[in-house]
Design goal:
Elements: E1 2-3, E2 8-10, H1 33-40, E3 45-49, H2 50-63, E4 72-75, E5 87-90, H3 94-105, E6 109-113, H4 115-123, E7 129-134, E8 143-144, E9 155-162, E10 168-174
């Protein structure tokens, strides 16, 4: 997940212009295209909510489909357009999805978003890690990442990486209770 310093993951208009920053951190780790490609190759399956999927479809008109041919499961109760053979929709129980579909078939499932979906996976203890990239900006209003999670969750910090654009990636393991 990408958020502002005040934990906002989306503006009210879903604009992503705030991802681009003018900040410069001299000690930042430079991420190469090869690094990104190597990381993306570790992902076996993407899971996303309906609103994230709709946003990804809109962005794909400008930039292409960001998820390639990797299987993508969209969690929704609505009838959404499915334009790629690698995309399917699911509207059932999340525990069943994880136990019957994801665990037997995939090693590294990436929960793309959004906030409601991420909170539900955390609440049900179905997520193993959180990677949060904090951008150097305070937005003031929009969709909060953990609003209404209503439970305490212990985490273990696995890694922290700062980048030249001022973004800081926090990588946590979720401690199972």
């Amino acid at each position: 997940m990408v958020s502002s310093l005040d934990s906002i993951i989306a503006k009210k208009d879903n604009g992503t212009d705030w991802f681009d920053t003018e900040d410069h951190y001299e000690k930042g780790v430079v991420l190469t295209e090869e690094d990104t490609e190597a990381f993306l190759k570790t992902i076996d399956c993407y899971v996303m909510g309906a609103r994230t999927y709709e946003h990804a479809l809109e962005l794909s008109k400008l930039y292409g489909w960001a998820y390639g041919d990797i299987p993508t499961i969209v969690l929704t109760h609505r009838d959404l357009p499915v334009e790629r053979s690698s995309v399917e929709t699911y509207s059932g129980d999340l525990n069943k999805l994880v136990e019957e579909r994801l665990k037997p078939n995939y090693k590294n499932v990436w929960l793309v978003g959004g906030a409601i979906l991420a909170k539900e996976f955390i609440r049900l203890q179905l997520a193993d890690e959180i990677r949060l990239s904090v951008m150097p900006i305070i937005l003031g209003e929009g969709v909060l990442f953990f609003e209404g999670i209503e439970q305490e969750q212990a985490l273990h910090l696995k890694d922290v990486t700062a980048y030249p654009n001022g973004m800081v990636e926090l990588h946590y393991e979720i401690k199972k209770q």
